[in-house]
Amino acid sequence: MELEELKSAWGELDKRVKKQDILNRQIIERMTKDQYQNNLKKIALPEYVGTIICYLGAAYLSVNIPKIEEPLIQFFGAITIALLLILPIISLQSVRAVRKANPSSYTYLEAIQVFGKQKIKFQKLQKLNVSLGLFLMVIGIPVLAEIQGKDLSQFPLFWTLYFPIGVAFFLGFAYWVLNYYNKALKATEKMLGEING
Amino acid sequence: MDIKEKFTKVIKANEGLIYKITTLYTDGTQDGKDLYQEIVYQLWKSFNTYKEQSKLSTWMYRVALNTAIFHLKQTKKRVDTIPFELEMERMTEEGDNAGEERIKILYEHIQHLNLLEKGIILLYLEGKSHEEIAEIVGISTSNVGTKISRIKEKLKSQIKNNDNYGT
To answer: pTM of the prediction?
Structure first.
């Protein structure tokens, strides 16, 4: 098939689209009345809910941290609070970066470049977020147990079995996630390289 | 004429443009619907700021293509959108089979191009002049010519390989 044939096939598609009433007036009306909630706003909502949950968790730990006597667990508690405060900021920052993009202010080439850079930044932040999130899960357990008044040493298998399994799972999952994002990063960098080259 | 009425008229007149961009930059009906609405939304948002220095179609292509680019990031996060009947499947079911097959082949080959090439070839197929493509894409007119020649070569070899493989 020659390119000119493809061009005529493209033209045929245009004729077919014209026969269809794809977007009815009612829907356009709704959009012009700002009743349409764009995807980004909906995607940002779970991020805000997550932020509130994290901050409530940080508040709970801050109030209860004086109950912890063990210095190591206190240290874990402080790190947990810090992570609960920092993680949502990282997440919201990446959503805000996408939100800031105004499609009408760029040329197509600029849009691809901005998109590529944002994607790389997003993927790096995701790498950081997933690693820190898993770390939080591991160190959060002894902190919560101490606050609840449960002595982990009474669970004979905790330090010898469950905790090492948790750490091994954390390392394995982190490796898989980092590998996934490294591949995605390379693909994005390659895409940008092709565009700029 | 009221601005909303004017906008509705513009959108109705250019549905084909939005539809084609939507199908080229998404891989599913639901995602296509989302992008379709997003493009109309972004066009409405910037409709007031559209200055008649450039052609209406140039502005529309730019906003629609750029929205498609920024939408790529969100494709894995599915969200519910307002009820919307975009009959993508029916569109390709209608008409003669040969035409349908040609459109399918065309889409398939364009999907293998990188984002810049995809945008340029779409504008080329839409019959845009090199000057207008240059304005929308943001590269020089001579560069448009060079890139179109390269894309043509690339597509030709893709199609040739495909034909050889198929026969």
So the answer is: 0.74
